Amino acid sequence: MIRLSTILWTLAVVIAGYAMFQVKFHVAKLDDELSKLNRQIAATREETRVLDAEWTLLDDPQRLDQLNSVSLKLQPIAPSQIVPPAQLDQIPLRNAPVAGPPQVASARTPR
Amino acid sequence: MKRPPDGVRDDPCRPRHFRPQASAPVPPEGPAQDAIELSHTRLLITGALFLLAFLVIDARLVEVAGFKAGDVRLAHNHVAAKTVVARANIVDRNGVLLATTLEAPSLFANPKLVDDKHGTARRLAAILPELTESEIYARLDTDKSFVWLDRRLTPRQESAVNALGVPGLQFQGEGKRVYPEGALTSHVVGYVGIDDNGLAGIERSFDQTLKHSDQLVQLSIDVRLQYILRSEIAHQVNEFKAAGAAGLIMDVRNGEVLALTSLPDFDPANPGAATAAELFNRATLGTYEMGSVLKIFNTAMVLDDGVATLASTFDATKPLQIDRFVIHDYEPKKRWLSVPEIFEYSSNIGSAREAAEAGADRQRAFLTRLDLLHPPAFELPEGTPLYPNPWRPINVMTIAFGHGISISPLQLAAGASAIADGGIYYPPTIIKRPNGAAPDGRRVVAATTSAEMRQLMRLVVESGTGKLAGGSGYLIGGKTGTAEKDAGGRYETHKLLSSFVGVFPINDPKYLVLVMLDEPHGDRNTSGFATGGMVAAPAVKRIVMRMAPIVGIPPADENSPEIRRSLMVGLPSPQGRKLAAN
């Protein structure tokens, strides 16, 4: 009987040890994954910061003003261009559809 | 181990062939028995302690694995430890970046590993323009194993250094402060030093917050309005060759500063290259004798304290002599003027007489109530106001038209906002107030006084000194100011400080626009004049016309009967004509 219980206990220890190392390796793997993800998050955050900064540079009012003065030549909205809601129906509608594709589209070379 | 019985001493020196005879174990007695019992007890206690320890461990295991399986705190420390904490961002009220931190590599070397120090120095000098070859060589030629070479390289420089392939050169990531809007918000945002310590502006006053928390700092500034304000003021500075200028746009309903500019300004990325004049913030740190714009406060005071009504008249027939001082009018009317006329034509004589009627105590109390005699609590460094001590009768008279007291443009704007917006004073702030949070305001004048002041401010634009701010399609009201600058005890006629405070829409005030030019010079377009009405009022008009569509203020027909009636100063003047301009 002592023999049997020894064998059983040995078996239990081996199984427990195997299971423990399985869990340990699994945790180590998860840990690796976690730190990898963390690095990715940090890198993505940094990238977002750079893109944010770049967007702000591109969206800088001074730059937009310069670009506008070169290509669009838009003016600030004059008070005469704004009508109160009550007079909305007095704005004439554009009846005839615009013929042909818009100029900007045709100016682009098709790819 | 079996202890040999007493008397049988297993002598290691005994002869090999001799064995002591086996004998029946003798039960120990005396001291030996005591010793055995003691060791039994010790063994029992030790065993019990071990058992207890294992039980505790078991219990904890069951607890962690069984009952706290979902607890994320255990995993959390791990994640938090790895996030990089960089200096936090500063953004405008719409979330546009004003200051951010980007990773930039800094170059250091281990000189012991660098073989060809001369060659390395020569090639590095070609990549790093801020260092000369001899400087680099001097740093490399040392016994130390760590020297900084250059900090915060551009990505291009980094790849060029890597391409050299010199062993012993290494990079260390460091945060680099970047200001995407550049000079536009330089006086508000400020700048940092090489070690990321805030040295000016918000960077300085919120240094600890920015350093130690991930929370961004959101300002009340709107970059779009800031650009409009700065470009229009810069236009005036160029046109009238002014030495400098300041301007701000304020939300009169809660004291938020929406735009704040001071010219000349500087590039916050390179503050070392800026002059003292460029670094000086005229809008908050500078205090000036602002001139006639202070008649807003003087008139509000006499109306609110019941010293005078809109129908009261004061003698402005001839210059007013007090001791050795003579108070003149810029455009003398040489007759008795009513309170509205004094405001409309900006009569110094009339204002001085109004203030004299009110007296020093009232004046001082009123200005204190409007936070004009001490720097208000503001997030940027504040100039300390200068005022006379003792407060003599002559001071009372000059302060009435804005001489003899120095305040900052910010104080002026906060005070004028209170007068225009129903008489409630809100402490100015440059940090965005949380949505819907009502700031603590305090009443400084009665609502009726405020309504009368709005009518008077409209009168100035319709037919008084601020005519050039009119005709915009939006209802602007305001007050001009032209002060002669104090040059060592006397006032100089040709060094002016010209300003205009505009409030719009004046029938339901929402925004205040202040433009102040320092030493403008009149040109052909202004017939040589450089007064506030000539140089500052047109700028306010253009700013309002550009900002109104952005902030969603509809244009108003200045000639519609309802609006004229609501803004009419409805009292007959001494000549019997209606004061509303027609």
**Helix residue percentage of chain B:** 25-40%
Helix percentage range of chain A:
55-70%
Described by its quaternary structure, the protein is heterodimer
**Globular, elongated, flat, extended or rod-shaped: what is the shape of chain B?**
elongated
Provide the low-confidence segments of chain A as ranges. Answer: 102-111
Query: What's the β-strand tally of chain B?
Result: 16
Percent of residues in β-strands of chain A: under 5%
Q: Can you tell me the overall shape of chain A? A: rod-shaped
Instruction: Give the class of chain A from helix and strand content and strand pairing.
Output: mainly alpha
Strand content of chain B: 15-25%
Mean pLDDT level of chain A: 82
Radius of gyration of chain A, taken over Cα atoms and rounded to an integer in Å? 35 Å
The strand count of chain A comes to: 0
Query: Mean pLDDT of chain B, rounded to whole units?
Result: 85
Q: Termini separation of chain B (Å)?
A: 125 Å
Structural class of chain B: alpha+beta
Major pleated sheet of chain A: none
Helix count of chain A equals 3
Poorly predicted residue ranges of chain B = 571-582
